[in-house]
Design goal:
heterodimer; A: about 350 residues; mainly alpha; two-stranded antiparallel sheet; 2 strands; disordered C terminus; B: about 300 residues; 11 helices
């Protein structure tokens, strides 16, 4: 039984790797590249919401801020790609340290509100700071060469480079959750008082998780600025924080692959929405559907509400539950305990 | 001419009034948030969207139905309350037994939906409507010229806030509300319809947002996104005042409006961020907020 699971998991990883490597044959590489950046963003966010029970509502500030720093390093300072990405990651970590220090003083909804408010402070800072380009943002960020060797100007090369970066970030998250540190985080999520009484310095664990999450968010933001060639205020607005929550929720909170699936679904929906709207307008003869493409938030908001009301496990969460449906007593118990670890990919 | 730190007095007065106007909106918005949070334990993130809806309902009433401002002053908050009641009854209600997080997430979705919906009809450009004739013009107070409408906004919101505070502190109703938060099952056993109380509280809270929207519409542009930017400041206000304190919401709202506005005179770059900086300081010194009790 156990050996079979290991083989299954290895096959799962191989299958996923094959799919990811071949994906540019089916979808535009650039769309997928964007998806991966957001997937890493959502995974980093999920580290907090899914495994530490912390609902940060300010992650856009780190995503956007790291995008600005990475973009500025590439475009104005002419730094090499690796260094610019590292700068973005460090930016995320440093900002996360400061915000986290303040925010973990409060719990639950207060935590969310504090992160939101501090993120908005960052937003106004970006709006006025000289290096962000204000309303216009940074445009025409050069892609350069990775490690001085690989020319990233080709979309397909860029795709594989971003895939490697994001896969590394993903692996780090999986490793973290499975580490003793990750177990303590889960313990804090389940019963904070008990974790305290067991002698864990809960505040330090939370802060560390927060910084790790924002560092990876920073990496995602800088990678996005590199890949798409621009960094704008949109990435730092609180609607982006809502977006990443939605990606995590629709994919499945507390699962590993969920946020990746969520990012893919949401971005695909977003890019196809005007076509869907036009189609519905043709079908029903109601002109209003044409407005779909320009009013993405309405549809996303609706998806959000439906997910919260009726679909809280998300796509991957439901899949895991379906896979682990009770076929024997042991299977049910195992599924309840290890739902998070069962994602294969 | 008299100056304070290099700013002429009339300018300072005008800025102070502007701060009071903004502060009244903050106060009314955060008051609604505090009331809703008190009983429902839900952070009403859609508050900004409902504020926007209040302003749009007024605009629609004026332009489509030919009603006047005074009628809409009553009708628009009622319409917003109706939207709120329907949402609470059909959807929000199912989330109470779950983690707080889901209420918050639902609210994000609702506010995106409402804002997107209005955007699909009206685009991103602003609609405007003028203040009613009775409130146009300005009054010379001797030390400054006060636009009548601004004075009305401050007076009307203050009256509404104080009324709400007074009512919520009534022994009987206040006790019901607090008891309903504390132990809904037991209160229900005493023959009080708690679900209805929750619905009405939510309706009242969002009606306050709607009223703020009606009052704000003549001084700001009516756009689908008008609430999205306000709500975040209001959150900071609520954190500063203390989320479970009605008086805290009112006082913090007014004071922060003024502070923000004065910051705009002396150091314009800071006016957008000063509220958040104050929030960070309050969090460090008094995590429960200035008027809040640690839950």
């Amino acid at each position: 039984m156990r050996a079979a699971t290991v083989v299954n998991r290895r096959n799962g990883y191989l299958l996923a790797a094959a799919l990811l490597l071949a994906a540019p044959l089916v979808f535009y590489p650039l769309l997928l590249t964007k998806v991966y950046c957001f997937a890493l963003f959502a995974c980093a966010f999920n580290l907090l919401i899914g495994f530490a029970g912390l609902v940060s509502f300010g992650h856009a500030a780190f995503f956007g801020g790291a995008g600005y720093v990475g973009g500025y390093a590439l475009a104005t300072l002419g730094w090499p790609v690796e260094l610019a990405l590292a700068a973005g990651t460090l930016t995320g970590a440093a900002m996360g340290y400061v915000v986290g220090l303040l925010a973990i003083r409060r719990k639950g909804v207060y935590f969310s509100m504090v992160t939101l408010a501090l993120a908005q402070m960052c937003y106004f800072f970006y709006l006025q700071a000289p290096f962000t380009g204000g309303e216009d943002g940074l445009q025409g960020i050069p892609r350069g060469r990775l490690l001085g060797l690989v020319d990233l100007s080709d979309d397909l090369v860029l795709y594989y480079a971003v895939l490697a970066i994001v896969a590394a970030g993903y692996a780090l998250i999986v490793r973290t959750i499975h580490s003793p540190f990750g177990q303590v985080l889960k313990a804090i999520r389940e019963n904070e008082a008990r974790a305290v009484s067991l002698g864990y310095d809960v505040a330090r664990y939370k802060l560390l998780a927060f910084v790790l999450s924002t560092a990876l968010t920073g990496l995602a933001g800088a990678t996005k600025a590199l890949a798409l060639g621009f960094a704008t205020l949109t990435d730092a607005h609180w609607a982006m924080s809502g977006m990443v929550i939605l990606m995590t929720l629709i994919g499945g909170m507390g699962t590993f692959v969920g946020p990746v699936v969520g990012a893919f679904v949401i971005l695909l929906l977003e890019s196809k929405l005007d076509e869907i709207g036009d189609f519905l307008a043709e079908l029903t003869g109601i002109d209003w559907f044409h407005a779909f493409g320009t009013s993405v938030t309405m549809v996303l908001g609706l998806v959000f509400m439906v997910c919260v009301l009726a679909f809280r496990r998300g796509l991957v969460g439901e899949w895991i539950r379906w896979r682990a449906r009770p076929r024997g007593k042991a299977a049910g118990a195992a599924a309840a305990g290890g739902a998070a670890g069962a994602g294969n990919g | 001419m008299m100056e304070i730190f290099g700013v002429p007095l009339p300018v300072l007065w005008a800025q102070l009034l502007l701060g009071l106007v903004n502060g009244s909106f903050y106060a009314m918005m955060s008051l609604g948030l505090a009331i809703i949070f008190g009983l429902l334990n839900v952070i009403n993130l859609s508050h900004g969207a409902l504020y926007m809806l209040g302003a749009f309902f007024t605009w629609m009433g004026l332009n489509y139905l030919g009603l006047n401002y005074w009628a809409m002053l009553v009708l628009a908050p009622l319409a917003v309350a109706l939207v709120g009641v329907v949402v609470e009854r059909t959807m929000l209600r199912h989330l109470y037994r779950l983690d707080h997080m889901y209420g918050l997430l639902f609210m994000i979705g609702l506010s995106h939906f409402l804002e997107g919906l209005m955007r699909s009809f009206y685009g991103v450009s602003g609609k405007s409507y003028s203040a009613p004739a009775a409130l146009s013009g300005a009054t010379d107070l001797g030390f400054m010229i006060m636009p009548n409408y601004r004075g009305w906004v401050v007076a009307a919101s203050l009256a509404m806030c104080l009324l709400t505070w007074f009512v919520s502190e009534r022994p009987r109703l206040g006790a019901y509300l607090r008891a309903g938060t504390e132990n809904p099952k037991l209160v229900e056993a005493f023959g009080i319809n708690v679900p209805r109380m929750v619905t009405l509280t939510y309706g009242f809270g969002v009606a306050l947002a709607g009223l703020a929207g009606v009052l704000a519409a003549p001084v700001v542009q009516v756009t689908p996104m008008m609430g999205a930017n306000l709500i975040v400041v209001v959150f900071a206000v609520v954190v500063i005042g203390g989320l479970n304190s009605i008086l805290g919401a009112i006082v913090a709202g007014l004071v922060l409006g003024v502070v923000e506005s004065l910051a705009g005179v002396y150091y314009p770059e800071a006016s957008a961020t000063v509220v958040f900086v104050i929030m960070a300081i309050v969090l460090m010194l008094r995590p429960a907020g200035l008027f809040g009790r640690e839950a």
